[in-house]
Amino acid sequence: MAEYRFIGSLCGYLCEECHEPLAGVKIRIYRATRQITERASAQPKDTFELITAEDAALKKSALIAEVDADANGKFEFDLGAAQKYAGEAFEIDVYCGTVPHHKATAKAPEPLQFSITTLQPQWRESDKGYVAAWEYCIPARYWCFIRGRFGAWTICGTVKICDTGAALGGVRVFALDRDWLQDDALGSAITDGNGHFRIDYSAADFKKTIFPSVHIELSGGPDVYFRVETLSGTVLLSEPPSRGRSNDRNNRGPCFCVDLCVPKGPSQNPTVLSAFTNLGGYDFTNSGIDTGATGLTSDNRAFFSNVRLNGVLAQLLNGQPLEYMFEVKDITGGGTYTQIVLAQISAVEIGKLETYAPAFPGDPNPVKTKPYIVNGTPGPTVLVPSVTADGWIQVPQQNNVFSAAGNFVANGNMIGLITKSLNTWAAINLAGLSGGQSLSPGQLADDRIYGIRMWVREAGNLGSAIIAGECARVAIDNTLYNNEDHHPYWGGGVVNGELGVYLLDIQELKLAPCTALKSSLTVQFTAAHPNLGTVNVVMTGPGGPYAFTLPAALPGQRFGTATPSGWTIGSLAPCAYLVSLSAQILLTTGDWVPNDLIDQIAFCKM
Known about the structure:
This protein has five helices and 45 strands.
């Protein structure tokens, strides 16, 4: 018996301009049992028929073969002696366990089977037997009916510019349903290079109400209106909710196609001026930093470590590509402004390169991104802005998300300033200092005050340079403290490189280590830093916690004997106790603050 290869593909129309492959459906072919000549000669659009489960069971004995369609709706049958097939007409059915782009629901939908037609393949002879091909796209009235049975609803559309009719790609379209009590968000999608978009949703998305047990959607489908935005959130079109009540928008079915137009497209190079306004999260233009006096932040902190300088970063100045650089002035040292060079800049991301490049049809993440990192290490996943010979950073100029070059989207960051590079910040030696003692002159550092400003210019045009923001005074302190001797008699020792001073001692243990205390407890402490915050001494143990009263604070330090507050050592039950000192150091990178410094000593009460 000859061998037959039947090759085909199936799709379904959502509307005249939009269709989809029948991905993942099961194609079943049956021996023709009904009016073969009449059905084989009729148009498939006239022979579509939904098959009940009972009918499918009756047809099972006539099944020749079944195969699964691939992601593109394509399928192949190899028929012959094994199937007892000799080239005759057969019925073509489709079995759907689901439909493409169906959103998951709590209850799985019931599978459906439908018959398309009875087909007599037009076989042609080949060296391996006979081959026939057949392609068919199911009309929208049938395919959308099937999608509706699965609760799978979709919107296909285009976005164009009203005046020119030009397709508008790379914008986000939001679809909403006008409802009686609350409008429902149906979903959103990004337009492709031809301005096309598709939004898939489920019936549950437009039947939501604030009353879980009440169904407020009185009509069969949603009443749809739209909003169109750029990817950065600029609104290009905002239809009023009443638009959803219009005759062409209300009670839409499972498939809805629409053409939207916006008055004008987004500007590729909007008029934006660069402005340096922030150190990390502190806006010095809006009282975030005391630029007129102390240079401290609004919560009394000085800056340290690497600080993110940020604000608004534009691509252009006077319509030309923009370059920028920063200068710093040591006000404490009486210096003048000097340029911050690349060696003083830590790696910081200034934005991302976006490229519309879906990896496959229906890719849920079609926009691919790479970070632009100033002073970063370039590689396959990292881009680094160019720096001129005189140290100006060039803002990336890509501005077409659909081109191979992509589109640069700034995040407002400009540089990461390595504040340790601004001074030598000699460490202070605390050798010989114990808990309870005060620091001597010279053992407590002072903040240094700096000015920081940003310059921008047209690329290569020295005469176009202008100041784009200045933080007139900012306090910075990177001083570290060495040789802090933490109770070596009880699990302590000398430590270096501390942000501040935090020493705790128990005088009785210092004189007689590892002895139990009975009648006296003398807790001595020292906490110091030019920006010292809250200092606390507390004891935990049976019946605790136990508080202490501390001596009054002096500028930058607090020290002496911590006195029990409302209790005595004689009132303590015999057991082990833990005394803790915590010192808050008021420093910040602008985005992070250090943890409190903690010192602890345990003792036993007889």
